[in-house]
Specification:
This protein is α/β, with parallel strands linked by helices. It contains 30 helices and 28 strands. Strands 1, 2, 5, 6, 7, 8, 9, 10, 13 and 14 form a ten-stranded mixed beta sheet that branches. A six-stranded parallel beta sheet has the order 17-16-15-18-19-20, sandwiched between helices. Strands 21-22-26-25 form a four-stranded antiparallel beta sheet, with no helix packed on it.
Length: 854
């Protein structure tokens, strides 16, 4: 029976405890230990059973207990400290204010399909969402005027449990938004603020919720409202990452188009729009629509303004991970928006096709984002190269190393992931500045001041807590599966709180190779079961519900762990989430990562582990490729690439065993008379002092601000001044170039005739070009030169040299000249090319206009 009316009951807090409500609804508590301890103090058991949800706690705790706490002077004093700290945080002068002045309204909108803020807001699936959450936290700490936009999923991502055979099963419990730290946005009369998006079956309404992340607001759209009569409309925001492509495109329309409209309805008018992956790329089309309708701009004029201020971050190192929709889906769902723009469907489809004129190409959300962004970036240096190679065909004629995809390496929010114990050490020996500015290299050099014994005892406490937690969870898992009482009792014997502990926790998909270390169980058993130097492995992670191969990996681990000689040494913890992740990255000794090389875009779990002194052992992929040094961890292999994956697995699994046997295990158990592994501790300190100041999201967000956000703001101000005069001029100029480009040609290229070229010489190159109706000031004529690869016969490590216009011969004919400096010996080559050129305009490759000498 459905209710006739609904109403919400809020907790009745005694007057003395009223600040608790404000504290609970600002997710600053998610990275503030003092606040977390305040809620634990209110009721420790309830804190755990509510999945660390202070809002649910306040609605569940007995009134008598609340009254008792209101009379507890010590608790009230603790609450006052926390509340004063919250108010001070919200009003303090920030890095951004010092650098750029106070900005009262957000100018950056950060869109993501998932956000991992904390355990009790389960609208994330893994690393992408947690990275988005950490981005918002650092934006808050830095005072960046940024707002987040996402979807509020009724079921979020699934809860995982394993059956008796070790096969992953999924549960989808409903999120109770009214008992989560999110609140509906309301009008002054109390009515709920909504946004409407047109679909083929009619308009769909989404409610707008707010989660407050410190100083940053995160707005989340929810279509599960009775205003939407159709179940399929209510279900748009039902689950994260459903397999059905039609549901996915409906979600992405709500995120991109609905998200832009929601901000406008809230009176928020960002300048910069940052797409975290391509799921929100439809936002670019909606922005263009709004500029066309509100300012009377043409499609191309509006596109110039949007292009200049859109940013796209790709996290995917292979096309298979990108949403590509059939043309009929786009026609069905975007047709109305084409009408608003006054353009044909083919014009929009071309923006998402790799080859704009190939009607058989699917519509790629990543390509749409790439084509409508002035700044695109990968998430590690290595991933930047992979992405440029993957997407080079979007810019035909552009050399791979010039494909306009930059890289900004990911980081993690240090205060969210460092353990309480380690935080205490940092406070004592590094001072408070480690938390206020985690990018300060000088601060992290003070790690060496921490006494070895104190650091080691602190880490041992974390390992002991991890083992105790893993044992409890293992017993609960066995009981839920209906295991025998003897099996449940044996779980308490699993793991050893003093043994070298390897952690492995991530999404279970085949390329991450979770079972690589299990390939030779006989050799592994000798390593794990060494009585004098025992080793153990703790696994956690989920496979996508449709990923059968990923589920098979989990099953293989479970069956291996049931072998009598290994059951005390290998444990799989079900239902991986942020809470389990903290136990693992704070309590492991060694963090293992084994992706197939070039398949891991970044990988942030190893960064989280490193800030807790956990040492990494990984394939040289993602972030580890750029961070690795021998003094901070171990590399599996040396950047080799293999065609035979079976052979690769054999080689790299043996490398793991060799490193464990010869280096890792001996170093860990090499103890002095005081029982301390001095060599291991030295590596822990080197890890923290090297990784912490670089691989954190404060550095990352600072880099986005300086390299992308602020240049975009400057571009917007230039393009929109005087009723978009510059945008109109730029659109007209590009249109002129497109019309005339086919008439330009390079007639000849000549080099100085010299018998011998020596290091230190200069070679003059002249070229005769025909530009027709295009003027020399509209183009860059360049020498493209560098060493020639003897195997491929191609120019490598190229350098471009601007050529100067030396003479005009009439009828659009010109002579250009430039000089090649000869700095080193060897075989070199050069070519000449012509590109569009415009002062203060970055994204010219999107024109697809480039002419090379033949």
């Amino acid at each position: 029976m459905k209710p006739v009316y609904t109403f919400t009951i809020v907790p009745t807090l005694p007057p003395a405890l009223q600040p608790l409500r404000e504290i609970a609804y600002n997710l600053l508590w998610a990275w503030d230990r003092e606040t977390i301890e305040l809620f634990r103090r209110l009721d420790r058991d309830l804190w755990e059973t509510t999945y660390h949800n202070p809002v649910r706690m306040l609605g569940s705790i007995s009134q008598s207990q609340l009254e008792a706490m209101a009379a507890d002077e010590s608790f009230i004093a603790h609450m006052k400290r926390v509340y004063d700290s919250l108010k001070e945080y919200m009003t303090a002068t920030t890095w951004y204010e010092k650098a750029f002045g106070k900005d009262s309204k957000p100018y950056v909108a950060y869109f993501s399909a998932e956000f991992g803020i904390t355990d009790c807001v389960p609208i994330y699936s893994g690393g992408l969402g947690v990275l988005a959450g950490d981005h918002l936290k650092s934006a808050s700490d830095l005072g960046l005027p940024l707002v987040g936009v996402g979807l509020l999923y009724q079921k979020g991502y699934f809860r995982q449990y394993l059956n008796s055979d070790g096969w992953q099963q999924e549960e989808y419990p409903d999120n109770d938004f009214y008992n989560m730290p999110v609140q509906l946005e309301r009008h002054e009369d109390g009515s709920v603020k909504t946004v409407t998006v047109e679909y083929p079956t009619g308009p769909v309404v989404a409610r707008i919720w707010r989660a407050q992340i410190g100083r940053v607001a995160l707005f989340l759209l929810d279509t599960n409202t009775q205003v939407n009569a159709r179940a399929e409309d209510r279900d748009i925001t039902d689950q994260l990452y459903v397999a059905d492509p039609e549901v996915r495109i409906r979600q992405q329309i709500m995120l991109g188009i609905g998200g832009v409209r929601a901000l406008k309805s809230l009176g928020i008018h960002p300048v910069v729009y940052h797409m975290n992956e391509g799921y929100s790329a439809f936002l670019a089309l909606e922005r263009i629509c709004q500029l066309v309708s509100e300012h009377g701009l043409s499609l191309n004029e509006a596109k110039e303004a949007v292009l200049a201020t859109d940013i796209f971050t790709t996290h995917t190192p292979e096309p298979a991970g990108i949403d590509v929709f059939p043309a009929q889906f786009v026609e069905k769902y975007i047709g109305d928006h084409c009408s608003r723009l006054g353009v044909s469907l083919n014009d929009v489809l071309a923006l998402g096709r790799q080859n704009p004129v190939n009607a058989s190409d699917g519509f790629s959300m990543a390509i749409l984002a790439l084509r409508l962004s002035s700044h695109s970036n990968a998430v590690s240096e290595l991933h930047g190269g992979v992405s440029r190679k993957m997407w080079k065909d979007i810019w035909p004629g552009v050399p791979e190393d010039e494909v306009p995809i930059d890289s900004i390496s990911n980081g993690v929010h240090v205060r969210s992931w460092v353990s309480n114990d380690m935080e205490g050490l940092f406070d004592r020996y590094l001072g408070p500045w480690w938390a206020e500015d985690p990018t300060d290299l000088r601060v992290w050099k003070q790690i060496k001041k921490i006494p070895d014994d104190e650091l080691w005892r602190t880490h041992e406490r974390r390992r002991e807590r991890l083992v105790a937690f893993a044992r409890r969870r293992l017993q609960q898992q066995l009981e839920r599966r209906g295991a025998s009482s003897s099996e449940v009792e044996q779980a308490i014997e699993s793991l050893n709180p003093e043994a070298l502990t390897i952690g492995f926790a991530r999404r279970f998909t085949t390329y991450k190779r979770a079972a690589l270390i299990l390939r030779n169980t006989e050799r592994l058993a000798k390593i794990l079961c060494n009585r004098d130097m025992p080793v153990q492995i703790i696994y956690a992670g989920k496979a996508h519900p449709q990923d059968m191969a990923g589920k098979e990996l989990i099953r293989e681990i479970i069956h291996t762990a049931r072998q009598e000689n290994l059951r005390r040494h290998i444990v799989f913890i079900e239902d991986h989430d942020m809470n389990i992740a903290r136990y693992l990255i704070q309590g492991s000794d060694l963090w293992l990562s084994t992706p197939r090389r070039l398949r891991e875009a970044s990988g942030t779990s190893g960064m989280k582990a490193a800030i807790n002194g956990v040492i990494n052992m990984s394939i040289l992929d993602g972030w580890w490729h750029e961070a690795y040094k021998t003094e901070i961890g171990w590399a599996i292999g040396r950047e080799e690439l293999y065609e035979d994956e079976e052979y690769q697995d054999e080689v790299e699994s043996n490398a793991i065993y060799d490193i464990l046997e010869k280096e890792v295990v001996p170093l860990f158990y090499d103890r002095g008379n005081d029982g301390l592994p001095r060599g291991w501790i030295a590596m822990m300190k080197a890890t923290m002092s090297t990784i912490c100041p670089i691989y954190n999201t404060d550095r990352m967000v600072h880099e986005y601000t300086m390299r992308f956000y602020h240049p975009c703001v400057e571009q917007w101000q230039t393009l929109t001044a005087d009723d978009f005069a510059r945008a109109k001029e730029l659109a007209a100029w590009k249109s002129h170039l497109r019309e005339q480009w086919s008439s330009i040609r390079i007639d000849s290229v000549k080099m100085d005739e010299v018998s011998e070229v020596k290091v230190g010489d200069q070679i003059t190159v002249r070229t005769q070009v025909h530009l027709g109706a295009i003027t020399p000031s509209d183009v860059a004529v360049e020498i493209y030169q560098g060493p020639v690869d003897p195997h491929r016969g191609e120019i490598t490590k190229a350098e471009t040299i601007q050529m100067n216009c030396m003479a005009s011969h009439g009828n659009g004919d010109y002579t250009f000249e430039g000089a090649i400096p000869c700095r080193s010996s060897g075989m070199f080559g050069y070519s000449v090319r012509i590109l569009p050129k415009r002062e203060n305009v970055k994204a010219l490759y999107e024109q697809g206009l480039i002419l090379w000498a033949s």
